[in-house]
Specification:
It is a single chain. Helix content is about 80%, strand content about 0%. The protein is mostly helical.
């Protein structure tokens, strides 16, 4: 059900309660609006995350964590759980884990959120969220020097991303796979992986990914 449908449903239930006197339907109206609030909180949190991620290096305060971001994701998680929306819960868990990993550089806190997100997303068939969780679990494994584990998780994330045709995300994963290959003394594989990633990224106008690929070339 879309946001517009949920709001319209709440209006219809309000009118039924007013005109028929059946106030029991207001519970359903409130649940519909709780779902809208959860979706909106998650969307707002993602916007704040994108602003942090795209802030230029050396921008000072612009790169500081927005204090509103985590409460938005936590509110979404609370509402999705209350609604029994497991798919939404998985997505909210992912973003909480991503914030702890990417912004706070705290993999110890992030990993349990990412693991639960991955499991719930798999149970609900949400390949997009599952692929995101696997990517970030791979990043955590790479940071802990568990290179084979990291490679498996990034490859599985890429497989899911190909299934849903999220090809810029595949290119992004390939950067991580290239770094892993380099760490395993497979430099030729690493450079070939970056070449393929570059082709994908250029074909989909993923200019930010192209910049990351060029940076990786200078470090491998």
């Amino acid at each position: 059900m879309s946001t517009e449908d949920r709001i319209e449903r709440a209006r219809e239930l309000y009118e039924r309660a007013v005109y028929s006197g059946d106030t029991s339907v207001l519970i359903d109206a409130e649940r519909a609006l709780d779902a809208v609030e959860a979706d909106t909180a998650l969307a707002r949190g993602r916007i704040l995350h994108a602003r942090f991620q795209s802030a230029p290096a050396g921008a000072g305060a612009l790169t500081a964590e927005d204090p509103a971001e985590l409460p938005l994701f936590e509110r979404a998680l609370e509402l999705y759980r209350a609604l029994g929306d497991t798919r939404g819960e998985a997505e909210a868990l992912f973003w909480i884990g991503c914030l702890h990993q990417f912004i706070r550089r705290d993999n110890e806190t992030a990993v349990p959120y990412l693991e639960r997100s991955c499991r719930l997303a798999g149970e609900t068939g949400d390949k997009r969220t599952q692929s995101e969780a696997l990517r970030h679990l791979g990043i955590a494994a790479h940071a802990a020097d568990r290179l084979d584990e990291a490679r498996e998780q990034l490859e599985e994330s890429s497989r899911l991303r190909r299934e849903i045709e999220a090809l810029p995300g595949v290119a992004s994963n390939m950067i991580g796979l290239a770094y892993i290959a380099a760490a395993q003394n497979r430099r030729a594989d690493a450079l070939a992986t970056l070449d393929e990633a570059h082709t994908i990224a250029r074909a989909h106008d993923a200019h930010a990914i192209v910049r990351h690929i060029e940076q990786a070339r200078t470090q491998i």
